[in-house]
Amino acid sequence: MHLPNRRITIASLAVLSLVFVSCNDGEPTPVQPSEHQYLTQEIPPCTPVPGSSVDPCDPDPPRIELCIECFMDLGDEPAGVHEAFVGDSPTPFWTPHMVLRGTYLPDTFRCTSDEPFRPPVHLRDEFGDPADYPVTIKCYIDVRANSYIVGTGPPALTMLVFYWHYGSEEYVEETRLQLEEDEDAMDAFSGREHIMFLAPPIDLSSLAWWSLGHWDVQRQVDDTVVAVHPARDHWRRRKPDDYLTYRSVLEMELPAFTQAVTEAHEARMTEYEGRIGADASLPMLVTDASQLRQYFTEVGAYAPGVPTPAPPPPPSSTGASTHP
């Protein structure tokens, strides 16, 4: 299946890299994590990041309409957590490996361009000939890891929040304009807390984790903290009666959400024998962020004669974004 001019935004997909952000004479620099760099103590929900005045769990955050088309057909009932792991016909590149609760760090949004598009072997049928996509643009933001709900990993990551590859230069200006819109959205995300579903990327040109989507973390009027379904606002506006019916699915208290995610993960581990899908030729799931390089090796990223995957760039020292 060819997917020319494919746009993937932060409402549906994103990438998390294995790059830390540290300081070197005031300049942020990427640092490869070692086997000892793991989150050892969870950060309680709704804890602001240092230096940010944003309430991570504001129950009335700015509305960000990035992927309205994703929810045009709401269906008879909202898809729950289980469907994210073991849907009726799971497509390999939509399979989450880990689940992270994290907070976006301010002033860390940045972009790269002109990277080659290199899908792994098991996704070649999905994307066709990589030569059809000569231009790739990626934008990143840094995240503080608060808790790994599924899996384990480092205390900080760099997330790819905008990804576009296309087959013609005529779309460059359109992409630049879209980047400006997405930058405004990321400004609204800075300091916010989300639950992110992570997977290895569909593009082997950069060594990174990919977030297939997120649930917002919000504090209700009685101080209960809930995980908010990505389509909650659409149900609340367009089907208010059904919203009330399915509110326990659209707004899940964190312990219930954690239990549902854990059960769904364990069910698919049993059903697929630890792989990302039913086909025995598919790669194994990765639930340790430090093992992403081994996954890349398994799917052909370090084959002879191919470019070595690169880490995402560090944030600008000024905190300003950079456009391709």
Descriptive report:
Helix content is 21%, strand content 25%. It has 8 helices and 12 strands. The strands form 2 sheets. It has a 6-stranded antiparallel barrel with strand order 2-8-7-5-9-10. It has a two-stranded antiparallel ribbon with strand order 3-4. It is globular and about 60 Å long. The two termini are 28 Å apart.
Please give the structural blueprint.
Elements: E1 6-8, E2 14-17, E3 20-24, E4 27-31, H1 81-85, E5 98-104, E6 110-113, H2 124-127, E7 135-150, E8 156-166, H3 172-189, E9 193-199, E10 208-219, E11 225-228, H4 232-238, H5 240-245, H6 247-250, E12 251-253, H7 254-271, H8 292-298
Antiparallel strand pairs: 1-8, 2-8, 2-10, 3-4, 5-7, 5-9, 6-7, 7-8, 9-10, 10-11, 11-12
In short, what is this structure?
The protein is of the alpha+beta class.
> What value does the average pLDDT take?
78
- What is the count of helical runs? 8
Q: What's the N-to-C terminus distance?
A: 28 Å
Please report which band the strand proportion falls in: under 5%, 5-15%, 15-25%, 25-35%, 35-45% or over 45%. Answer: 25-35%
Gross morphology is: globular
Report the helical percentage: 10-25%
What would you report as the Rg, rounded to the nearest angstrom? 19 Å
Oligomer, anyone?
Answer: single chain
Largest sheet: 6 strands, antiparallel, barrel
The SSE string, one letter per element, is EEEEHEEHEEHEEEHHHEHH
Total count of strands:
12
Strand order in the largest sheet: 2-8-7-5-9-10
Structural class: alpha+beta
Please mark out the parts with pLDDT under 50 across 5 or more consecutive residues, or reply none: 1-34, 67-71, 318-323
